[in-house]
Structures are given as structure tokens and as C-alpha cells.
Design a protein that fits this description.
CATH architecture of the largest domain: 3-Layer(aba) Sandwich
Distance between the termini: 31 Å
Shape: elongated
Structural class: alpha/beta
Number of helices: 11
Bound molecules: adenosine-5'-diphosphate
CATH class of the largest domain: Alpha Beta
CATH superfamily of the largest domain: P-loop containing nucleotide triphosphate hydrolases
Helix content: 25-40%
Length: about 325
């Protein structure tokens, strides 16, 4: 997997991996609402890219522009080497799109959905059947193949959607919020499927509201906020953008909490949770000094947790800067 984060500078005689998707200054407004306010992208072939942002940030709009479903108001984008505005057919031939505007028809069976896709891609009858059977098997849908897709669970429908997309053997796949609304087991199953696509050399453009999902899957993550990309890099690099970790002390006794809060400098209070946060690198030496100090002051915390920065911290630092969810991997709201 590529570990580079910034677009590689052109080197004379060097070899820059071809971009599967690139965009410069993409803009899109609906009425007087600016949804995308100049988006630049560079996604190397064979990598997983996550566009991360809360509901309504403009993720689907970006996917629709890049997959030629709608046109941008400004800027340029190339997908699989084709300009999205000038050569939409070339783009469409190279990509697969799954997501909120899913192609699954609930009235017909999973198998019929697959065969329909095979027809659309002009596969012969035998070849269509072979490919459909193979993909249904790969996505664990063989048993359900003869049932109407409307009877499928959310996870099964998404698997069918991806299987249908793969009939055309796309080199670039757009997955628009592939796990929104799925239970944890189906979410993990979907992650496994996405990793499998990448292992086959497919470039994956993923949108997600889940920090954990981006952290788990993506080589590079771009945080979309207010129509702009607020930061971009690997998960590790984004985590390095925010200040170091902290130690959190939680109390059940309000008076113990108050005396600890008064005695400590450089502490952030959470009066509702009776919790205090101290900046800390999490080293043994720092932890020992905190424990020694608590002992000396005769204060007993009910819980001590060490916190290293995660993508939640990055997101909240980059966006509102106020308040953060304490639940790791929580959806952005
Ligand atoms: P996301 O996928 O990040 O949830 P979307 O791209 O779907 O965000 O939407 C971004 C914003 O654009 C939202 O405020 C949405 O209401 C608005 N929007 C999207 N499509 C249309 C449309 N066809 N007409 C008007 N507004 C739209």
C-alpha cells in the first residue's frame, strides 16, 4: 500500500504513480448554498481514499460529480484518465458506483439483478451466468439468489449492490457511505469486502461519516468541512496534527472532584461527568507523577484513562473546535 501522503512531487526521471482520480478547484452550489467550494484531490491508483465528513457536508455531491451523474459548476476532474465533463463515457466505462442511489431492483431476485447487469455490459448469456454465479458466491448470496431483493437485509442489499458493480470489472469503485445503517457485524463484513477489492488492485473512493471506518480502511483521508478540504493525509499524519494525548481522571465523589480540580493547574474540567483532563504524553514517568501527586493530596480518582489522539480529536480540532464526542468511533454529528 502506498504510504505517501502528499501528492508526490514530480521528479525528473522519477516515476509518479498515475492518479486514478484527480480534481482541481471543484465547485458546486445549489441555489445560493455552496456545497463544494474548491476541492482538490489526488488519489493514486490502487489506494483507498476516504472522504470524511458529517451528514450534509457534500460527500455525495462529490461522488456524483466524479461519477458523471451531475456536472460541477467549476473546476476540473479526471477519473481513470478521462475528463469528467469532456469524456463522461470514458469515465463511466472505468468506474463502479454503489451507495445511496443503488441500482438494486427489489422486485426481482438477486440473481436476476446480476443477470440484468451482465446484459447491460453485453456479456454473452453463458458468460453472464458464470460471472453472476461467481460473484453471488463470493458475496455469500448464493442461497438467497432466487429470492426477491426486497426481502434482503441491509447488509445483503449492499453486498448485492457491490456484486452488481463488479460485473463490469471496474478499476475504480465509488462507495458512498457503504456501512451507514449497518449493524456492527455487517459493517465488519463490508470492511473485509472492501479490503478484498483493494487486494485485487481496485482503487476505492469511499465516503463515510465514521472516523473509525476511515482509520481502518483508508490510505489517505480528506476531511470535508464547510465545502472545503480541511485536512488531508494518512490517519497517522492527521493524528499528528493535533496536540498530544491526555490523562482523564474520573470521580464519583463531587467533593473529591472539586478538590482535585482546584489543586491541579493546566486541567480541563468536565463538571457534568466529574472528570478532569491533564495533558500528558502517556509515559510511565508522567503517569507515576500524577499517581504520586494524587496520593500525596489524599485524592482518589475512580478511574484513570490514558488517551492518545485519535481521528475524533483531529475532526473536532479541524472543524468547530468546540466539544467532542467521548465515544471513540462515533459517527460525526
Ligand atoms: P453528504 O453526502 O455529505 O451527506 P450531500 O452531498 O448529499 O452531503 O449534500 C450536501 C448539501 O447539498 C446538503 O445541504 C444537501 O441538502 C444539498 N443538496 C444535495 N443535493 C441537492 C439538490 N439536488 N438540490 C438542492 N440541494 C441539494
Amino acid at each position: 500500500m502506498p504510504s505517501s501522503v502528499m501528492p508526490m512531487p514530480e521528479q525528473s526521471g522519477g516515476h509518479t504513480p498515475p492518479a486514478a482520480v484527480s480534481a482541481a478547484g471543484l465547485r458546486k452550489s445549489y441555489g445560493d448554498k455552496t456545497v463544494l467550494d474548491g476541492i482538490d484531490l489526488h488519489i493514486p491508483a490502487g489506494s483507498v481514499f476516504a472522504l470524511l465528513g458529517p451528514n450534509g457536508a457534500g460527500k455525495t455531491t462529490a461522488v456524483k460529480i466524479l461519477s458523471t451523474l451531475i456536472r460541477a459548476d467549476g473546476g476540473q476532474a479526471r477519473v481513470a484518465g478521462h475528463d469528467v465533463a469532456a469524456a463522461p463515457d470514458g469515465v463511466r466505462a472505468a468506474i463502479g458506483v454503489t451507495g445511496q442511489f443503488s441500482a438494486v431492483d427489489g422486485l426481482i431476485t438477486g440473481e436476476e439483478n446480476m443477470l440484468l447487469m451482465a446484459d447491460l455490459h453485453h456479456l454473452s448469456r453463458d458468460e453472464g451466468r458464470r460471472v453472476a454465479a461467481e460473484l453471488l458466491e463470493r458475496f455469500d448470496l448464493t442461497e438467497a439468489a432466487k429470492k426477491p431483493a426486497s426481502t434482503y437485509s441491509g447488509g445483503m442489499k449492499r453486498r448485492l449492490d457491490i456484486a452488481m458493480t463488479l460485473v463490469g470489472n471496474p478499476r475504480i469503485i465509488f462507495l458512498d457511505e457503504p456501512t451507514t445503517g449497518l449493524d456492527p457485524r455487517s459493517r465488519h463484513n463490508m470492511w473485509r469486502i472492501i479490503r478484498g477489492l483493494v487486494a485485487d488492485g481496485v482503487t476505492v473512493f469511499l465516503t463515510t461519516q465514521y472516523l473509525e471506518e476511515a482509520d481502518q480502511l483508508a490510505d489517505r483521508i480528506a476531511v470535508l468541512n464547510d465545502g472545503k478540504i480541511a485536512a488531508e493525509g494518512s490517519a497517522e499524519e492527521l493524528k499528528r496534527l493535533v496536540p498530544g494525548g491526555h490523562v482523564r481522571l474520573r470521580f464519583t465523589d463531587p467533593s473529591a472532584y472539586q478538590s482535585a480540580a482546584h489543586a491541579l493547574d493546566e486541567v480541563t474540567r468536565d463538571d457534568e461527568a466529574l472528570a478532569l483532563q491533564l495533558p500528558s504524553d502517556g509515559s510511565q514517568r508522567e503517569l507515576r507523577s500524577i499517581l504520586d501527586w494524587l496520593d500525596a493530596a489524599g485524592i482518589e480518582a475512580d478511574e484513570l484513562t490514558v488517551h492518545t489522539p485519535d481521528l475524533d480529536d483531529v475532526f473536532f480540532a479541524l472543524t468547530s473546535g468546540s466539544g467532542r464526542s467521548d465515544q471513540k468511533g462515533a459517527a460525526l454529528r
